[in-house]
Amino acid sequence: MTQPTDIRREDHRPLLPDEHLRTALRLATSGLPVLPLRKGKVPFGNCRTCAHNACGGRPNMKTPGPCHCPGVCHAWAAATTNPAVIASPTWGAAWRQAVCVGYHPGGGGLTVVDLDNADAIVWARTALPATRTVPTTRGEHWIYRGTMASRNAVRPGVDIKSTMSYARWLGPGAGIMTVLPDSVRALAVKEETSPIRPALHAVAVPARSGNGECRHRTPAYLERGICMAEQRITQARSAVHTTVYRTFLAVLSAHGRCGCLTDTHITRLFTAAQAKGESPRHCTDAWTNARTRLGL
Q: How would you list the strands of the sheet with 100-103, edge to edge?
C-alpha cells in the first residue's frame, strides 16, 4: 500500500468536516479503507433498515454479509476505498457529524498495536521490533505490514487492531514500517490456545443415551460431523459470526441430546471460530443461543 505521506498533522485538534472528507479521500487513494467516526470516536450506528440485523447481514456489526446498505452501517465493514461512496450525499451527513476519520487496518493490509499508556510503550520497546509509530492522546500506535485477527487486552494497555476492527487516523507517523512479526502474532495465539472455560461450561447438554455414545449413528459419524463443522467455519469468507452460530446449531441439532458431545469436541469448534476472529464471549453466546433455540 502506498503510504499517504502528504497528510500530516502535528497535533490532535479536531478537523473540520470538509477536512475529514479530504483526508478520507486521500487515504482511500492510497488503498486504506476509511469510514467516519462520530462522537466518542466510534462508528455510526445502523440505519432503520439494518437495525436489529433486519437486513440479514453483518450481525452485531462484526462481520460483512449480504447487506448492501449505501450508508455507513456495520462499523468497520462500512470502510471503503471507493471515492464515489465516500463523497456521496448519503455519507455527507455522517461526515458533517464526524469527529475524526477511522480506517480498517486489515483492509489495508496492516496491523495496529495500540499502546494505551506509558507502561505499554516501555514494554513494546523491549518486546517488539521497531516499526512506524503514531502518537495518540495517551500512548502510541505501532503499525506493521501484514494482517491478523484483532484482539483486545492481549496484555495490560495493549490492543491489536487488524481484521474486523477499526482504528483512528492520527497521521502517517514516523519510522519505517516493518513486516508483522511473530512476537505480535503470538500475543493473539496465546489467548486463542488458552483453556476456553466459558465454552466448557456451556457444553453440559442432556444425555439421553446414558453412555456418551452417539445413539443413532456410529462414532465415526460424530467425528465426521465435527470435522465438517470445523471446515465450514474455517472456510467462511464472509458472515463469520452467522456461520459460527449456524454451525453450532447444526452440531447441536444432530448430537445435542444423545450425550456424545465432549469438552474436546466443543473446544475444537470454539478454536476454529476464534481462529476466524470470533472472541471467546461471542463463541459462548453463539453456543448458548443455539442451545436455547433447540430447547437444550
A: 42-43, 34-38, 100-103, 167-168
Q: Tell me, what's the pLDDT at 98?
A: 92
SS3 35: strand
* 3-state class (DSSP) for residue 134: strand
Q: Are 57 and 47 in contact (CB under 8 A)?
A: no
The total number of residues shown for the chain amounts to 296
C-beta neighbour count of 4 within 10 angstroms: 18
- The burial of 30, by beta-carbon neighbours within 10 Å (0-12 exposed, 13-18 middle, 19 or more buried), is given as middle
Q: Which residues are CB-neighbours of 289 under 8 A, at least 6 positions away? A: 245
Distance, CA of 296 to CA of 280 (rounded, Å): 21
Q: What is the dihedral of CA 113, 118, 121, 123, to 10 degrees?
A: -120
pLDDT in tens, 229-272: 888 888 877 778 888 888 888 888 877 777 677 788 888 888 88
Please tell me the distance from the alpha carbon of residue 282 to that of residue 184, in angstroms, as a whole number: 23
Average pLDDT over residues 95-111: 93
Longest dimension (CA), the chain: 69
User: Distance between CA atoms of 269 and 261, rounded to whole angstroms?
Assistant: 11
- Secondary structure of residue 200 in the 3-state scheme: helix
What is the grid cell recorded at 175? 519510522
- 0.70 exceeded by the pTM? no
Do residues 166 and 32 touch, judged by C-beta distance below 8 A? Answer: no
The pLDDT tens digits of the residues spanning 159-183 come to 999 988 899 999 999 999 999 998 9
Q: Bridge partners of 140?
A: 115, 135
